[in-house]
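Section 5: illustrative case.
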């Protein structure tokens, strides 16, 4: 800064000889001193050494004077602040401070500022113009007043200009160093010096650099947050805890704040610097760990996954819609929407690898459960997610009236707008309905009720379950191959689980009897009575024969139940599986039932159960008992299964008979009849060229009839394997027809 401006700014009269002191309201008064020298304020004289006015201590030589800054009407420029803070003027050795005399106990004493004070209190500065002490940090950065009181000594007024102030110098200076406004001003001074002495540029550049640095740190932190959410989602872990509000603590929380924050702390401990640093530096409104942000990020991840799936579906174009009604834990009604479509996993066009994909797209909340409303919700959801709805070629729902009825239902409303979206009842669900209807046979229904009661009796009580486990351990002592200790609950919809329940019950049958006998000894009359009733029911020969029959039926249908739930299952394959199982059921004659009877008889002899029926006594002829159970339980049960399969799957059988004519396994050894495919050509006239399709058929027929007999077993028997053997260049219309048949969900749901 130019010298002339400094001279004009600090222009002052330096010839003051006798400083006059007027104590401020806040200055402490020495009561003892006032008593010993009552005339001290009126009699004390202060003489200033002439040294203070020597010419070589001019303003030009000392630079900025702190006293002038304290009384200036406007704040000093930044350069002056930096000069005063970084290079304060200190009177040199030999400088004589103003001396004050006072009378104490009748004696004259001389007092002046002590030079050691500058070393003990580094913030002290001496003003040549005011001939007193100032706190340079407070002069430059302290407020004008604190709690309504003006800051005087050391801030706006000089200190050390009276004998009283000098006497209490150490005490008052130490007291000042502890004042909150001084501590705050000292911090601001340090920040000011650091900012102006660094090479980071001006404030704007520093703020820009700081923002860029914080933004980069935030982006890294967000990557860690998203990775943590993905981990929780993939592993099925809930994110939130009992209390998860507030910032992310670096140490373990006193309460459970959820898996999300716990995993973030784990990342920080493992060396993730962004997770460790960002929560400490982030603004309170941008921590990105609140429950709201968690839900938003989960939604973003879900939308990204759905968009990827939708792009894959649109690339295939043809798809089938699978939907079902469900209710969440809060009782809200919603639709689960799934799409089934063919996909070529191979990037080599000469070696295709087609597969069936079934992808879940999301839940959609619904209020109106009418067929029209559900159909509108399904179509609007698919359109909103970006799916090309014109490629819809199939529908698959359960047997509920509002989903699959003939008139006012979902499938009919959708079929009106998309005539090629044919409806197919879920084959696995159909099979479950057949089994449930067959179980209405009196003996079967009674046996299942008893079986369910026994299972629930043990599973509903930890004490009774412990007794059963002890009985199992005692019975299978030394047998390391058996690890079953609990009964499996009967599932109402999945017969695969029912098969497991029946098998485990028969395996643990002797243990169950032993456990029921122990429970009967309980003092609780209701529980012991219930145990006795259950024991009597499961030790009847009728129950043993029926449970063995159920075992045979579930074993027969187990493979079919699993097969119908596979993604690759189509109408042709499902029909073949159903015909084979139906053939097995039709072969269950009297000879097969006698094997079932012998197993029940063996189990009865092991546990002293009399072999008899409800109709005959214990001394009846065994052949009569066999005929009784065969005619009244076994035949009605098996016949009901066969009739139910015919009724439920007749449509599938007819559909399979129509579409399987394109499969190579059915073309081999037959004559080419183009007329049989006229209906298919007209039906899919919008997807294929009917004339070209009919022209391709003879060449397609000739291709598979030329196969040698040794290779017949390798002929494609379903549409998925046929796709991998069909060239889209040589047979474009047949290839499209195969995709259509693969897309339509005829069996799986």
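Designed sequence:
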């Amino acid at each position: 800064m130019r010298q002339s401006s400094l001279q004009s700014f600090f222009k002052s009269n330096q010839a003051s000889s006798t400083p006059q002191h007027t104590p401020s309201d806040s200055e402490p008064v020495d009561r003892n001193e006032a008593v010993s020298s009552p005339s001290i304020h009126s009699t004390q004289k202060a003489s200033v050494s002439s040294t203070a006015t020597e010419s070589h201590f001019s303003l030009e030589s000392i630079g900025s004077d702190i006293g002038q800054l304290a009384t200036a009407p406007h704040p000093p420029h930044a350069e002056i602040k930096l000069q005063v803070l970084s290079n304060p003027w200190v009177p040199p050795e030999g400088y004589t401070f103003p001396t004050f005399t006072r009378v104490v106990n009748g004696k004259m004493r001389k007092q002046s500022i002590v030079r050691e004070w500058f070393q003990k209190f580094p913030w002290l500065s001496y003003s040549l113009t005011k001939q007193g002490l100032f706190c340079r940090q407070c002069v430059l950065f302290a407020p004008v007043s604190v709690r309504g009181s003006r800051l005087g000594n050391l801030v706006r007024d000089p200190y050390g200009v009276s004998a009283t102030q000098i006497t209490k110098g150490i005490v008052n200076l130490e007291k000042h160093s502890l004042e909150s406004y001084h501590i705050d001003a000292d911090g601001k001074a340090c920040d000011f010096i650091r900012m102006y002495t660094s090479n980071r540029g001006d404030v704007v550049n520093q703020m820009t650099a700081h923002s860029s640095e914080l933004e980069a740190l935030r982006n890294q932190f967000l990557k860690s947050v998203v990775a943590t959410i993905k981990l929780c989602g993939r592993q099925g872990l809930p994110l939130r805890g009992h209390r998860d509000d507030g910032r992310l603590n670096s140490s373990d929380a006193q309460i459970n704040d959820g898996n999300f924050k716990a995993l973030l702390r784990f990342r920080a401990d493992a060396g993730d610097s962004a997770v460790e640093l960002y929560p400490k530096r982030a603004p309170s409104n941008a921590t990105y760990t609140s429950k709201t942000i968690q839900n938003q990020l989960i939604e973003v991840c879900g939308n990204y996954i759905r968009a990827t799936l939708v792009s894959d579906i649109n690339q295939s174009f043809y798809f089938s819609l699978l939907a079902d009604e469900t209710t969440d834990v809060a009782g809200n009604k919603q639709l689960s929407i799934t799409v089934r479509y063919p996909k070529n996993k191979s990037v080599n066009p000469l070696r295709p690898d087609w597969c069936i994909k079934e992808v879940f797209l999301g839940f959609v909340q619904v209020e109106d459960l009418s067929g029209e409303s559900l159909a509108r919700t399904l179509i609007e959801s698919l359109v909103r997610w970006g799916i090309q709805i014109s490629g819809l070629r199939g529908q698959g729902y359960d047997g509920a009236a509002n989903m699959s009825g003939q008139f006012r239902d979902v499938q009919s409303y959708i079929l009106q707008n998309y005539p090629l979206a044919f409806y197919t009842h879920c084959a696995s669900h159909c099979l479950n309905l057949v089994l449930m209807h067959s179980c209405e046979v009196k003996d079967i229904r009674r046996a299942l009720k008893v079986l369910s009661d026994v299972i629930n009796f043990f599973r509903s009580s930890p004490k009774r379950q412990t007794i059963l486990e002890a009985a199992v351990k005692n019975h299978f002592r030394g047998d390391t191959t058996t690890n079953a200790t609990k009964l499996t609950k009967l599932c109402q919809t999945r017969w695969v689980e029912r098969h497991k329940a029946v098998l485990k019950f028969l395996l643990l049958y002797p243990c169950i009897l032993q456990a029921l006998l122990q429970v009967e000894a309980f003092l609780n009359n209701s529980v012991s009575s219930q145990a006795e009733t259950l024991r009597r029911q499961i030790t009847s020969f009728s129950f043993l024969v029926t449970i063995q029959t159920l075992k045979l039926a579930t074993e027969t249908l187990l493979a079919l139940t699993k097969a119908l739930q596979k993604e690759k299952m189509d109408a042709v394959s499902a029909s073949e599986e159903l015909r084979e199982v139906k053939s097995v059921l039709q072969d269950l004659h009297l000879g097969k039932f006698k094997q079932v009877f012998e197993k029940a008889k063996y189990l009865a002899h092991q546990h002293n159960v009399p072999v008899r029926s409800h109709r005959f006594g214990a001394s009846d002829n065994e052949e009569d008992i066999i005929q009784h159970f065969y005619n009244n339980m076994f035949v009605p049960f098996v016949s009901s299964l066969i009739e139910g399969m015919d009724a439920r799957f007749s449509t599938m059988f007819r559909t399979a008979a129509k579409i399987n004519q394109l499969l190579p396994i059915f073309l081999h050894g037959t004559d080419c009849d183009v007329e049989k495919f006229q209906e298919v050509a007209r039906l899919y006239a919008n997807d294929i060229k009917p004339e070209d399709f009919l022209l391709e058929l003879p060449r397609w027929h000739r291709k598979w009839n030329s196969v040698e007999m040794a290779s017949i077993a390798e002929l494609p028997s379903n549409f998925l394997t046929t796709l991998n053997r069909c060239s889209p260049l040589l047979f474009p219309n047949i290839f499209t027809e195969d995709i259509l048949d693969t897309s339509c969900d005829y069996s799986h749901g």
